[in-house]
Write a structure and sequence with these properties.
binds zinc ion, 134 residues, 3-stranded mixed β-sheet
């Protein structure tokens, strides 16, 4: 499952930070890009499952949604995912979930109708903060 390997990657990264700094993780914060369309509730659940019985169990986890913003390379207009999603079919939305870059080829700029976008924010899932009790 896509989500499971993603969450495993997050947990590994957090644990690695703790190992490097020789501390114990008391909490960490992750941002889930809107464009990735990951279900935050599912990610929380998987985090709880994966960390059970590990040094990360009981750490305070904050999961935030990072808004997606893309810039049209045709006219320079900036759009949110919501504004572009209106031009996508259900199949295309599913594809964008796995390959966010596809938003560029699938959707059209509401202003100039071009399909060249640069994703400025909200593409992926990242660890933004790790708190240690070192
Ligand atoms: Zn445009």
């Amino acid at each position: 499952m896509h989500e499971l390997s993603l969450v495993q990657g997050i947990v590994d990264a957090v644990q690695e930070t703790a190992n490097e700094k020789k501390g114990r993780v008391t909490g960490f914060k992750i941002e889930v890009g809107e464009l990735s369309q990951f279900d935050i509730r599912l990610i929380r659940q998987l985090l709880a499952d994966i960390t059970r019985g590990t040094p990360l169990e009981g750490a305070k986890v904050v999961v935030r949604r990072e808004k997606c913003r893309v810039r049209c390379l045709g006219c320079g207009g900036r759009w949110t995912f919501k504004e572009l999603a209106g031009t996508l079919s259900a199949d295309e939305k599913e594809m964008v979930h796995f390959l966010p870059e596809l938003i560029s080829s699938c959707s059209k700029c509401p202003s100039c109708s071009k399909s060249y976008f640069e994703i400025e924010a909200g593409r992926s899932v990242r660890v933004v903060e790790v708190t240690l009790d070192a």
